Amino acid sequence: MTHSLKQLAIDVGNSRIKFVVLHTNLPVKDCKQLPLVEHAVSMAIDEPVPWDQLRNWLSNQPEEHCQSVVAGSNPRGIKKIVTDWALLPLLPPLEVFNTEDFPLNIEVDEPRKVGIDRLLNAIAANILRNINQGAIIVDTGTATTVDVVSPDGHFAGGSILPGFELSAKSLHDYTALLPLIPVADLRQEEPVVLGKHTTNAIRSGLFWGQLGAVRELIHQFQKHSLFNSSPEPPLVLLTGGGSSLLAPHLDDLVRFEPLLTLQGLAIVAQKISGIR
């Protein structure tokens, strides 16, 4: 018998919290299908949680066909969500902390120290990539990560660099005169390359420098010996809060999946609960 599973997945990051309602048709027949996103909203870590909006999204949903899950890198933010959970008509969320339960081989020196978002991205990438095809995942948030999934589906490590917001804040905090450039400024219009005053020079460096770093890391990983035996080039995925800024300039290289982390979290919750 086929039915739809609704999931409220919550990713609590260092600077933002993301809420996504997804649905999956059970039993899963297409192994390359990620949970489908119905609604999404994000908020700064210190803003009020949009409980009314979440209740509206989940109204009239039978409890037995609904699941909630929360994970992330910010314990304070997770506590904020769980403490006020009674404001939603759902059972308490599944809190995902232990990555040892993940359906993923983690081939790095210290598996327990890998950020959970990076592993959730890899789990989702394993749904999308072809058999014997690797993957490269670019996730732009507070930090930008560029990670590799091997052709046999193992998380193989990657690179970490400052994201847009962290780079802007560092320039402001560690210099005497440079202004703080909000990331929202970069969304209003594409920064000029040749800045004629300090603000535009910073915008140029933030945007084009980030884009150049991401392009070069993709290029270096594509040449890595890990992919030498693969019959096709790695699938390149772009996700995260800053991904919409980069996507128009990388559309020849990447597949744009802005909510990959939360889709990976939904998959993990299904597997831990024995649903999928």
Automatic annotation (TrEMBL):
EC number, UniProt record: 2.7.1.33
The protein's required cofactors: NH4(+); K(+)
UniProt keywords, alphabetically: ATP-binding, Coenzyme A biosynthesis, Cytoplasm, Kinase, Metal-binding, Nucleotide-binding, Potassium, Transferase
Tree of life domain: Bacteria
Subcellular location: Cytoplasm
Entry annotation: catalytic residues: D117 (proton acceptor)
Enzyme kind, highest EC tier: transferase
Residues reported to bind K(+): D139
SUPFAM superfamilies: Actin-like ATPase domain (SSF53067)
InterPro entries named among the record's database cross-references: ATPase_NBD, Type_III_PanK
Binding site for ATP: D11, V12, G13, N14, S15, R16, I17, K18, T142
Recorded metabolic or biological pathway in which this protein acts: Cofactor biosynthesis; coenzyme A biosynthesis; CoA from (R)-pantothenate: step 1/5
Residue numbers binding substrate: G115, I116, D117, R118, T198
Alphabetized CDD domains for the sequence: ASKHA_NBD_PanK-III
Family classification: Belongs to the type III pantothenate kinase family.
PANTHER family, sorted: TYPE III PANTOTHENATE KINASE
The protein's name: Type III pantothenate kinase
Source species: Gimesia maris
